Amino acid sequence: MADAVSKIIHPQKAAAVNPLKSSQPLGAALAFLGVNNTMPLFHGTQGCTSFALVLIGRHYKEVIPIQTTAMDEVAAILGGADHLEEAILNLKKRTNPALIAVCTTALAETRGEDFDGDIKLIAARRGEDLAGTEIVLAHTPDFDGSIEQGWSKAVTAIITGVVRTGPAERVAPNRINILPGSHLTVADLEAIRDTVEAFGLEPTILPDISGSLDGKVAERWMPTTDGGTPVEDIRVMGRAVHTIAIGEHMRAPADALRARTNVPYTLFPTLTGLAVSDRFVALLAELSGRPVPARVRRARAQLEDAMLDGHFHFGGKRVAIAGEPDLVYAMARFFTGLGAEVSCAVSSTGSSPILQAVPAAEVVVGDLDDFETRAEGCDILVTHSHGRQASERLGIPLMHIGFPIFDRLGAQHRHTALYEGTRDLVFEVANIVQAHHAPRTPAELDPFRDHGDTHVGRPQTAAH
């Protein structure tokens, strides 16, 4: 954590200009997509679903399985319980998913319906028809929160709805749980799994988008998610000896899992950087009782060399960062750790306590208009694809990071975590700085170009 506490600023604007954040149900859908054979179901209008579907599809360049209860004008007035029941039964009949994950939207939440009661009644009344399918509910109105909150609520809903309770579970000493944040990529989860397995541990990652959103050509068409954490593995997460949560917004799911299973947890605010990667590796060594594997030590040595090679390009640089709270914190710590200054930090929401630990004088809770206004004079912009217009207008290079990224390929395969991810980020930033470095002209190097002819050292004309 930073020593100083950042000042959190909430601009009083009548409207968002070039919005920075995406909706809670979108974040919940992303998390649910990390569970195998799952169908996310938006309880609301078709428009709410289409918005999330388009953004996720553009980011991952994949076909995304999301359905809607398609509430109409009548349902908006009289209630959407019938639409919800019909949608659940149709999904069970047509796709037979292991999990139907309901995400509420603004329309349904504004009516104040008893969604929990509706789902319990549906399960009790149509139990035989729904046998073999779990149903979970996440309250995610569009008008509140952002991707991180939606993701967190979805993971919490899965834990409280699927994980078995009580001490009856037989503890497996080599099993651990990983609760990754929404800011981690497919490549990050693969790197985390590989590192955990290098210590002889077996991780259950929830959610695991590395299996379902990794961009592969499937052998057969699947109407639901193809890959991700199996529901059977989620049920027995209480057998693990420890849980590792990554990102402040994963504290609530970790607390829910501990309350349900008594499994202790360790929370890492970020896994980007040398020191935090060291702490992660040290924890794995402690849990496994094994020494650090040679290949992990080699990855650390590569990061050290990358930092030595790249730190010249960070020193004194002014950086502007915009994104979800945990992503802003992770990137700010990364840049300041290598000698750069975070001159502008803009967060999509202001509810996360991690914002006070961002190493910047202030953090603005706002939009990309606030970001552009405050980023003038910086050396590099760090945000998602919607920041490209600000980059063009300001003439400042843009480092794409976060969600969505739709004007670059392979966003899901970019490393940002642990030794490998931090190494790759060092190289990426250094290359951006070098590519946009304007070499100084001979005139600019002339130490006397801004002085008059009478400057000391200039040849003087004799007076006659």
UniProtKB/TrEMBL annotation:
Q: Name one Pfam family in it.
A: Oxidored_nitro
> Pathway of this protein?
Cofactor biosynthesis; Fe-Mo cofactor biosynthesis
Residue ranges of the region described as Disordered:
438-464
Q: Does the keyword Oxidoreductase apply?
A: yes
Q: Give the compositionally biased regions (Basic and acidic residues).
A: 446-456
Q: What is its EC number?
A: 1.18.6.1
Q: Which NCBIfam families does the UniProt record give?
A: nifN
Q: What is this protein called?
A: Nitrogenase FeMo-cofactor scaffold and assembly protein NifN
